[in-house]
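The authors assume throughout that readers already know how a fold can be written as discrete tokens. For illustration, here is how one protein appears when written out as sequence plus structure tokens.
>
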Amino acid sequence: MQNKFAWISTPDELWDNKKEMITTALESGIDHVLDLDDCENIRKLGNVKIISNSEDADIFLVGINGEGDGFLELSEDFTDSVDIANARKAKSEGKTVCAYVIITDKAHEQLAVKLGSIADYVILVGTDWTIIPLENIIADLQKEDVNIIAAVRDVDGARVALETLEHGTDGVIFEANDFNNIKKIAQEVIEASQSKYELKIATVTNVKPLGSGDRVCVDTTDMMKPGEGMLIGSYSKSMFLVHSESLESEYVASRPFRVNAGPVQAYVMVPGNKTRYLSELVAGDEVLIVNTKGESRTAYVGRSKIERRPLILIEAEYEGQTIRTLLQNAETIRIVDENDEPLSVADVKAGDKVKVYIESSARHFGIAIDETIIEQ
């Protein structure tokens, strides 16, 4: 599942009131603002992307004139040909383009599809909104490289838009006029972006201490709870759930932001159902935190620490398939057993049941593909 996103449009209020709403949106993780009047002031609030019809906008807007009662309206001067011509002209000038279409009839629906083949983003606003036009447009644009954004008014509308036709829209936009609404919609978008991984129960078949190797600790900007960790393995399509260092130990203090992940060549699951080598991770990269139910959330790498440490090989089997990973040979390093309990590598033995993730597709450059690849 890809990451969903939220944008805001600014309310028609005095700057001081508008500023508070934009600041709340930024604090909630929303950093794209549609505004036609206060671009210069908005940029002073943080690292923000401005969607506007001005030439210095980060994302150039076609199809609106700024009039309306909460959502910006189509200008009466615009026609299909003018909208499309403006979008093409802006694209030819190297601009990132967003088209804004109010869906009132089939003709506007068709206009949205035409613009979707040109623009980078299409904002869809419904007057007498139903689910049907949104379904049609998503279906018609599924092969185009465009982000579809639904204008919504509340968290319920955001949920419907993000789930339509299973895939849903890529994002939502709403008027930032209520602090609680901003926070609720931002949280809904985060939850809609979460992938779920079906974890299997595999049987440990071999545990073998090895010599030293370069292993990676992944320190994230999130605090993990007991039961959370990362999917890590020697093979890109079969991984163990490696537990975070969120548990207290008589040997070291807990580090709930950390997963002592494995050697440099191991794979780790990242957003978008992709994998990365542990050695590639640097500050600012995204990784997936996964819990014992397979639920995931995105976190950022604060740092990746590589040190030489003794390693241990763990092998398991699931329905005839062998799964392997190497971990640091230390009591504080844990995988997860069939009862969702952390299991130290110091205690793991043949016959133990542990949680793993099995990918049906092979991977090429970290992306799942339909291809036969043998890893051993």
